[in-house]
């Protein structure tokens, strides 16, 4: 069915005003006089929820009636950020809400500032999941997002004395108006225990898992509102609870503490998000988290399927289950266990169902991110699943590997799902590939590397299973909602359909040479820079000029993302200015935002170094304000919404071959920033779209990186060959930036010299710093810059997450749109 525009009745601002007042009074027990901003915010949410819930019910009805095939997006992370402004836009009542609040004496932005970020994710992977569910709803595809209802999302970052301090995040401390608890769909999940082999009634041997413990999964639904769409899907997040809230026997016997211990152990499962980004968290609790949400979600999917089906022959026609990275891979043996042990299917039939239902997205090539779980841990926590995994592996090695490479034991050892060694491990990525009908990478270049470097033998076995789906971002949040001025300008220039058809921005590229258009475009950029400058002053006490070039590097802190390469460049600029106060450069501000995993020492040292360098540079009158450095604390979606529109230069400087895609690169380009970046991830495709002359590429490409490593990379060669590079590295050993405490920044230098510089900062340094001279020159020609910026913004329609979703639908999911009744 083709999607048509929503014909939902338009609400006037007067009606919206009435709704807000009604909810203030009848939902929140206050009134216009007494209400604080929290109450105003919640009443605004409840007002729009009236429209949202109606559509939610209609969507669910249509999906049930049509028995539609649906995608189930299993992800340990959904980095949603705030929902209010987005939801108001998507229901198309933003202007009415703003008017209504204004008439009630309230400013919509201040009211919406009350909303805590829903930070149930670390970085790119979690934010991608959030963009995808937005697009799925917008495109009217039946879809459910499944994840964990963490009590604490990603930690809040304070900066004290330049160092990162982690504080707990409590996003729902005072209640959250978006979520709906669904007690009717609670699930019970077994853990631990042992497996018994019994004779079934049919005389066949059967396996029975006697759980040692059970925990309860309580579903919370967050409505996911499609833009201008009738569809409202749900994000279903599972909260863990003790199966029996209270053990009365233990309690009555005087063991109150024990019964409380059981309760708190069960609740621990959904207590916190692991703050690791791209590193494996080898913890029992983490495996339980993974199993808990997969098991709850599968029960939910099967329960829904069974409403209309009496056997499993149509399961994979009705349900596709997307594994967002390896984190939910345990869903594969779990479905096998359910089908074989509980539903009585034979292994081959069950395997067919599994294999036709699962698909897997890989987000990284970093070896330390590829999950492996100890066999011992599995034996303890999921004793039946390890048996299932052994059987999957045995059949895979005997039926598939042996057939392709007869008698080749080395190949069997290499491809085995079980890694042999001192401690035996389950390779979750292999299990995911073997158990799925498709495996995809997240950008063209990355998908090639997935085939060539990560899973070459699997690619040889099943070339048809490997596909690419380049990432995208939702233009509703990353342009419409966060950059109202530019959005309005595009409305005027190309019409108002661009949030659904981002390619239409291309129409504005024709005006890239038009002086009036350029001026208007740059005036908007300046306005966003003024807003950011105010925020910087408020948060960091640093004054920056909106006329300076804003260079922004925002993403998780990781050596491969090379924030420390940017730091070397900043040090070089500072040094040039000190040596020659007339050094020819335009005023520049470097802005960082980044969280480091709490246990990642070097990443935290880099944050400290940036702050220490900032202290010195920002207060050095000799350089006359030509250079400023800012580290913005607590980078998160809400801060990102202020940063992307204000960037002139987007730093995307990972070592080629390491950043799977990147999505910040897309958000910057869309908002008219120019990229300085390596030939890595989606930068490669951005270059194709905007043209080589509108992007600043530097550094070694992926093949050159590999070649250099193969021939034996020696960072000392680069250190000695470039006096400026040597000088800035040596600077880090002195106490210039940390008075009285020499050596405080030495770990950074050491990582790039004694540590072998694994991400080739020194090898790429010269190319980077030279390319920056070109960036600076281009910026000083404002007409030229405006043209380039416009072309960037107008040319990145491809990176709309709606396009990504259509690619998934075509290449993997094969869904039909379902239009709910209006
Ligand atoms: C990230 C990749 O590093 C990034 O390049 C990509 O754009 C993003 O996924 C979305 O595909 N990976 C992660 O965030 N990985 C983890 C484990 O957090």
TrEMBL record:
Record-level GO cellular component terms: cytoplasm
First-level EC class: transferase
Modified residues annotated as N6-(pyridoxal phosphate)lysine in this record: 667
E.C. no: 2.4.1.1
Key words of the record: Carbohydrate metabolism, Glycogen metabolism, Glycosyltransferase, Pyridoxal phosphate, Transferase
Cofactor(s), by name: pyridoxal 5'-phosphate
Gene3D superfamilies named among the record's database cross-references: Glycogen Phosphorylase B (3.40.50.2000)
Gene Ontology biological process terms in this record: glycogen catabolic process
SUPFAM superfamilies: UDP-Glycosyltransferase/glycogen phosphorylase (SSF53756)
Catalytic activity annotation: [(1->4)-alpha-D-glucosyl](n) + phosphate = [(1->4)-alpha-D-glucosyl](n-1) + alpha-D-glucose 1-phosphate
Gene Ontology molecular function: glycogen phosphorylase activity; pyridoxal phosphate binding
Entries under InterPro entries matching the protein: Glycg_phsphrylas, Glyco_trans_35, Pyridoxal_P_attach_site
Similarity comment: family membership: Belongs to the glycogen phosphorylase family.
Role this protein plays: Phosphorylase is an important allosteric enzyme in carbohydrate metabolism. Enzymes from different sources differ in their regulatory mechanisms and in their natural substrates. However, all known phosphorylases share catalytic and structural properties.
Protein name: Alpha-1,4 glucan phosphorylase
Organism in which the protein naturally occurs: Alginatibacterium sediminis
């Amino acid at each position: 069915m083709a999607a048509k525009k929503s014909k939902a009745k338009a609400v006037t601002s007067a009606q919206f005003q009435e709704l807000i007042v009604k909810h203030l009074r009848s939902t929140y027990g206050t009134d216009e006089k007494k209400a604080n901003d929290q109450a105003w915010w919640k009443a605004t949410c409840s007002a729009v929820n009236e429209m949202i819930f109606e559509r939610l019910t209609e969507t669910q009805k249509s999906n049930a009636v049509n028995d539609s095939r649906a995608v189930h997006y299993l992800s340990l992370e959904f980095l949603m950020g705030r929902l209010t402004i987005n939801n108001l836009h998507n229901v198309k009542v933003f202007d009415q809400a703003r008017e209504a609040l204004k008439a009630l004496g309230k400013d919509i932005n201040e009211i919406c500032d009350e909303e805590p970020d829903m930070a149930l994710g670390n970085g790119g992977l979690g934010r991608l999941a959030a963009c995808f569910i937005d697009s799925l709803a917008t495109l009217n595809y039946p879809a459910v997002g499944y994840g964990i209802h963490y009590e604490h999302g990603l930690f809040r970052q304070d900066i004290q004395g330049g160092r990162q301090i982690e504080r707990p995040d409590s996003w729902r401390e005072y209640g959250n108006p978006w979520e709906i608890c669904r007690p009717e769909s609670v699930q019970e999940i077994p853990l631990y225990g042992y497996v018994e082999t019994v004779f079934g009634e049919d005389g066949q041997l059967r396996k029975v898992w006697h759980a040692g413990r059970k925990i309860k999964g309580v579903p919370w639904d967050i409505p996911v509102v499609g833009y201008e769409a009738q569809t409202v899907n749900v994000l279903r997040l599972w909260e863990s609870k003790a199966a029996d809230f209270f053990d009365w026997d233990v309690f009555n016997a005087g063991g109150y503490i024990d019964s409380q211990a059981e309760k708190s152990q069960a609740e621990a499962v959904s207590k916190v998000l692991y703050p690791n980004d791209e590193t494996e968290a080898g913890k029992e609790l983490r495996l339980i988290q993974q199993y808990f949400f997969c098991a709850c979600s599968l029960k939910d999917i099967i329960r829904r399927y069974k409403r209309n089906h009496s056997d499993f022959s149509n399961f994979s026609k009705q349900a596709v289950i997307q594994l967002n990275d390896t984190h939910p891979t345990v869903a594969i043996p779990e479905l096998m266990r359910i089908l074989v042990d509980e539903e009585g299917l034979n292994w081959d039939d069950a395997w067919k169902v599994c294999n036709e239902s699962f698909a897997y997205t890989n987000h990284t090539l970093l070896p330390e991110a590829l999950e492996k779980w100890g066999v011992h841990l599995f034996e303890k926590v999921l004793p039946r699943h390890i048996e299932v995994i052994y059987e999957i592996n045995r059949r895979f090695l005997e039926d598939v590997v042996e057939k392709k490479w007869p008698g080749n034991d080395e190949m069997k050892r290499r491809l085995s799902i079980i890694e042999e060694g001192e401690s035996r491990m389950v390779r979750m990525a292999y299990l995911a590939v073997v158990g799925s009908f498709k495996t995809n990478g997240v950008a063209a270049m990355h998908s090639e590397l997935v085939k060539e470097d990560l899973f070459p033998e699997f690619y040889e076995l099943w070339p048809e299973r490997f596909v690419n789906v380049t990432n995208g971002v939702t233009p509703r949040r990353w342009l419409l909602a966060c950059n109202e001025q530019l959005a309005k300008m595009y409305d005027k220039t190309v019409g108002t359909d661009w949030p659904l058809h981002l390619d239409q921005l291309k129409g504005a590229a024709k005006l890239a040479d038009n002086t009036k258009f350029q001026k208007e475009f740059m005036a908007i950029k300046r306005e966003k820079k003024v807003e950011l400058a105010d925020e910087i002053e408020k948060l960091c006490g640093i004054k920056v000029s909106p006329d300076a070039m804003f260079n922004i590097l925002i993403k998780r802190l990781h050596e491969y993302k090379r924030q420390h390469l940017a730091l070397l460049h900043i040090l070089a600029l500072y040094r040039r200015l000190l040596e020659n106060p007339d050094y020819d450069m335009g005023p520049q501000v470097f802005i960082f935002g980044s969280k480091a995993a709490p246990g990642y020492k070097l990443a935290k040292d880099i944050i400290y170094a940036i702050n220490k360098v900032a202290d010195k540079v920002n207060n050095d009158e000799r350089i006359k304000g030509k250079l400023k450095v800012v580290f913005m604390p607590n980078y998160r979606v809400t801060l990102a919404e202020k940063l992307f529109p204000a960037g002139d230069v987007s730093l995307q400087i990972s070592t080629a071959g390491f950043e799977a895609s990147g999505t910040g690169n897309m958000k910057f380009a869309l908002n008219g920033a120019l990229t300085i970046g390596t030939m890595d991830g989606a930068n490669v495709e951005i270059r194709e779209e905007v043209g080589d002359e509108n992007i600043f590429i530097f550094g070694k490409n992926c093949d050159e990186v590999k070649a250099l490593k193969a021939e034996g990379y020696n960072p000392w060669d680069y250190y000695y060959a470039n006096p400026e590079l040597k000088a800035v590295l040596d600077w880090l050993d002195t106490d210039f930036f940390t008075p009285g405490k020499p050596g405080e920044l030495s770990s950074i230098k050491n990582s790039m010299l004694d540590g072998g510089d694994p991400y080739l900062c020194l090898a790429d340094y010269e190319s980077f710093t030279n390319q920056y001279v070109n960036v600076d020159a281009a910026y000083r020609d404002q007409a030229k810059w405006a043209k380039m910026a416009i072309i960037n913004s107008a040319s990145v329609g491809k990176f709309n997450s709606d396009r990504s979703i259509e690619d998934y639908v075509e290449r993997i999911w094969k869904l039909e749109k379902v239009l709910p009744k209006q």
